[in-house]
Amino acid sequence: MKTVLHKAETRGHANHGWLDSHHTFSFAGYYNPERMNFGVLRVLNDDVVSGGMGFPTHPHQNMEIISIPLEGDLQHRDSMGNVAVIKAGDVQVMSAGTGVEHSEYNKNQDSLVRFLQIWVFPRERNVTPRYDQITLEKGQATNTFQQILSPDPADEGVWINQDAWFSIGELEAGHEQSYTIKKDGNGVYVFVLEGSVEINGEQLDRRDGYGVWDAAGFDVKASQDARVLLMDVPMN
To answer: Positive or negative, the Cα torsion across 119, 124, 127, 133?
Structure first.
């Protein structure tokens, strides 16, 4: 088993006033040659957007883009004609493929929006762009790992153009949950959204990241009530 630990305070940070962003991997003005990616997981941004502000229309190409709101309402518009609001409990995916333009704004003037912006390299390039979003059922992740993303349109959650599986776990203090890596050659990047957990004797706190690969699986024990995101992705 191989592992890597990224403590929350070691992430890149950029405060633009309207946008306060922490970067687990190199992004924009933050460059760290040792923090470029975890397998095909290229970007993990922890963004806070001020009321009424956001990202104006901009292009993407050949990237799988996943947005997971943690608080507030995020307004999405894109060149495929999609107009949507996503909020905590929703998961959004956009396969940029041959090219797409979109904008993202905080729908509310008087409150913040917090969301994770995740980029994954695609399995195939130049596919037809595609958009999807789902609302997760409450309680489905209690003391288990609820799958929210996979490579199979018929499977649970949204789907992307990559052999990747994402899951969310809401673990009560003292609960230990096993996770089996989905595919040979994949690794899992664990991101602690809230609370704290222990993996392989390593204590992980809020917004810490921990990668595991060259393993069949691992156990996650909640040191206190915790919410974790698991990203199971190809390492090559």
So the answer is: negative
